[in-house]
Design a protein that fits this description.
CATH superfamily: Gcn5-related N-acetyltransferase (GNAT)
CATH architecture: 3-Layer(aba) Sandwich
CATH topology: Aminopeptidase
Number of domains: 1
Strand content: 25-35%
Helix content: 25-40%
Distance between the termini: 21 Å
Order of helices and strands: EHHHEEEEHEHEEH
CATH class: Alpha Beta
Radius of gyration: 15 Å
Oligomer: single chain
Shape: globular
Length: 183
């Protein structure tokens, strides 16, 4: 379901608390089949939103019908969670898709893909031709369906001796398609 009334806007500093709530609700609901509650809570306590993304103006909010449906962004900066990575966290000058979350009410309706197409277009507009993402296990089917490749585990060592496992993925972006999506 892609509604014509959807908008994507740049996140503002005043959005931070609402976006953190959306992150928590999303991970607790959509991630529960892949991670235990202790792992989810430890991950949330470690921080899911780098405020620098909002300051950099590379973090976006998907809205429609009066509701915040999702959010996500990108950066070439080292993710804050990289300090927790035991293995598998590649850092460098390749843009990283960051903190993409959908509200559970709006999951599995094509909205995450819609937001990702927008994020990829923004990455291309900034002059890059590829992107990486560290995917949660819950989001892996979406990224794979969009052409992201890779299978290297990224293990985050969290408080309470918990480990959060993600998968490092990469994609060469279709620059002509992404530019049309951004227009």
């Amino acid at each position: 379901m892609i509604d014509a009334n959807l908008t994507i806007r740049r996140a503002q500093p005043g959005d931070r608390d609402a976006l953190l709530d959306l992150h928590a609700e999303s991970l607790r609901s959509l991630g529960r089949h892949h991670y235990g509650p202790e792992v989810i809570e430890a991950f949330l306590a470690a921080g899911t939103l780098d405020p620098g993304l909002i300051d950099d103006r590379t973090y976006f909010v998907l809205e429609g019908n009066g509701a915040t449906m999702g959010c996500g962004g990108w950066s070439v900066r080292r993710p804050g969670f990289a300090r927790l990575a035991a293995i598998g966290m590649d850092v460098g000058a390749v843009p990283k898709v960051r903190a993409v979350y959908m509200h559970p009410r709006f999951a599995r309706q094509g909205l995450g893909r819609h937001l990702m197409v927008y994020i990829e277009a923004e990455i291309v507009r900034a002059g890059f031709a590829r992107a990486t993402v560290t995917s949660s296990l819950a989001s892996l089917p979406l990224y794979r369906s969009m052409g992201y490749l890779g299978d290297a585990p990224v293990v985050l060592n969290l408080p309470g001796r918990q480990s959060f496992v993600g998968i490092a993925l990469e994609k060469r972006l279709d620059c002509s398609r992404a530019r049309r999506a951004a227009a």
